[in-house]
Design goal:
By secondary structure, the chain is mainly α. It contains 23 helices and four strands. It has a single domain, classed as Up-down Bundle (Growth Hormone, Chain: A), CATH 1.20.1250. Strands 1-2 form a two-stranded antiparallel sheet. Strands 3-4 form a two-stranded antiparallel sheet. The chain is globular and about 75 Å long.
Length: 551
């Protein structure tokens, strides 16, 4: 039973619940992410919205509507904003700190919500979507960063994974609110779902005003005393406790070594073995999007409608519920079974499900001369929707939360904010590409690919790639501190061998770092010794890793 249960290690001093509660609260920001991305699917299908925002285009049913290109712009511009927000997150995170950055980002998001709520035509609505996306992009990079730097190592996976759980709750809330307002014949049909987002942002801002800064950021800034106080709050023990001294010594020793060989630039993220980690993070975030999950939540209502389902909004609520509850087994398993097995078997399950959806949809539907979908076998379409639900289960319990977990823990402190910004930006870049391209790939008409259900063959191919990606590139990091994960990448050249690795010593032991009785961290190594250490390991961080790890 020990493999399937997890408890706080006896040697870990203090309390675990404060850091867990803080990490779970910060995950609340995922509701902004999920709700904002989920609400647009229902809004685009609302009768009043189609009439008000139409510029004259009529759909295949002769009803006023936004055109496919306008629909593409409305959905994808949020992701464009999030892409730039994610890339810009290190400018805030490494300057004013993780905590204040989240507060600033929430206000940017609120500005975007104000513009969308006020809009009665496309230009202002698009501007609001962009600024809301910019705020969400900042938040989506900062939350895993804050969580990974404050969570106890033995339950870090579940805490960072809770961010994805909050995203699924946001998607569900969006589906429920859209369902409640869909038949309104006034601006409340779309304004109410959009304005609800004010509440989520205000709750996050209020909470972040009370929470501590991360100890690792404070160490990075040389504020050792503040770092001890912050860590003491997280562990609920006195800042002068020996356990606080030891943990800070390890963090500081790792950071001091990194800084002794130069400050980090974006270019350093692409050098030597660090490139392997960056490509792993970018790959897992990009593939998470290419599995097709956002097709279901961006365009699911219209897809279900075309499949002959009488009440597509209800199906959207059901799939959102499955998304929420399926995330829970993943949070339970991530720190018990590990990252690699969950990602591997999740990819297998998604691959099979998407293939069956594509097969059933392609063989049992057709089109009339006007491009309307003709369903030959409604039972087969319902079976296809069942397999979509099975796909959502595999995604939500594995790739949904674990993409954020893996990227939050594989980078060293010096480049963590920069690398996380790029991996998160990759997620949003693919999110934007899928949101923008899908109407052109799926819809009927001149200039459109008219793939319809065949689009699921694309998602099937991506899920197949996921299997190989995990097997060859994803390291098992369950149970190790962020500093030990750094050592893991230095000493193990193959992801397949990572599960059997154990650290030989702490970084502070290798550098000769000790702590004083007052809690300050001293290094027994002189500057000359540090230089000799760097020289013996290759004079640069890149060569230090090159001796032990092949990309």
């Amino acid at each position: 039973m020990g493999r399937f249960t997890i408890h706080k290690p006896e040697q870990d001093a203090g309390k675990a619940w404060p850091a867990i509660v803080i990490g779970l609260f910060v995950a609340f920001g995922g509701i902004l992410f999920g709700y904002d991305t989920g609400t647009i699917s229902g809004i685009l299908a609302m009768d009043f919205f189609q009439n008000l925002f139409s510029t004259g285009y009529r759909n295949t049913h002769g009803h006023l509507d936004v055109s496919p290109s306008q629909s593409s712009a409305i959905v994808s511009i949020l992701s464009a904003g999030t892409f730039f927000g994610a890339l810009g997150s290190p400018l805030l995170a490494d300057t004013i700190g993780r905590r204040l950055s989240l507060i600033v980002s929430s206000w940017v998001f609120i500005f975007g919500v104000i513009l969308q709520t006020a809009a009665v035509a496309l230009p202002l609505f698009l501007a609001g979507r962009f600024f809301a996306g910019f705020g969400v992009g900042l938040i989506s990079a900062l939350i895993p960063l804050y969580q990974s730097e404050t969570a106890p190592r033995w339950i870090r996976g579940a805490i960072v994974g809770a961010y994805q759980f909050a995203i699924t709750i946001g998607l569900l809330l969006a589906a429920v609110v859209d369902y409640a307002t869909q038949y309104r014949q006034d601006t409340g049909s779309y304004r109410i779902p959009i304005a609800v987002q004010f509440a989520w942002a205000i709750i996050l801002i209020a909470g972040m005003l009370l929470l501590p800064e991360t100890p690792r950021y404070l160490v990075k800034k040389g504020q050792q005393d503040k770092a001890a106080r912050s860590l003491g709050k997280l562990r609920r023990i006195d800042r002068n406790h020996a356990a606080i001294h030891d943990e800070l010594a390890e963090i500081k020793a790792n950071n001091d070594y990194e800084m002794s060989i130069g400050t980090a630039t974006y270019l350093d993220c692409f050098r030597g073995p660090m490139l392997k980690r960056l490509l792993t993070g970018m790959g897992i975030q990009g593939l998470q999007q290419l599995t097709g999950v956002n097709f279901v939540f961006y365009y699911g209502v219209n897809y279900f409608k075309n499949s002959g389902i009488q009440d597509p909004f209800t199906i959207q609520v059901i799939t959102s519920c499955i998304n929420v509850f399926s995330t829970i087994p993943g949070l339970w398993a991530v720190d018990r079974l590990g990252r690699r097995p969950l990602l591997l078997w999740g990819a297998v399950g998604m691959c099979i499900s998407q293939f069956l959806v594509a097969l059933l949809g392609t063989l049992t539907t057709g089109q009339d001369e006007a491009g309307n979908i003709v369903v030959y076998n409604v039972a087969a379409q319902k079976a296809g929707i069942a397999f979509i639900c099975i796909y959502i289960f595999f995604f939500a319990s594995t790739w949904g939360p674990l993409a954020w977990v893996v990227t939050g823990e594989i980078f060293p402190l010096k480049v963590r904010a920069k690398c996380l910004s790029m991996t998160t930006a990759t997620n949003w870049l693919l999110n934007w590409a899928i949101a923008y391209a899908t109407p052109y790939l799926v819809n009927y008409g001149e200039g459109y690919a008219n793939l319809q259900s065949k689009i699921f063959f694309v998602w099937f191919g991506a899920c197949f790639i996921c299997i190989a990606f995990v097997y060859f590139l994803v390291y098992e990091t369950k149970g190790w501190s962020l500093e030990e994960v750094d050592e893991l990448y230095s000493e193990v050249s193959s992801a397949r061998k990572s599960a059997g690795w154990t650290p030989s010593s702490t970084f502070s032991q290798r550098q000769g770092v000790t702590t004083t009785a007052t809690g300050d961290v001293d290094s027994a190594a002189t500057d000359d010794q540090a230089e000799k250490l760097a020289e013996s390991e290759g004079n640069t961080a890149v060569s230090h890793h090159d001796e032990k790890s092949a990309v």
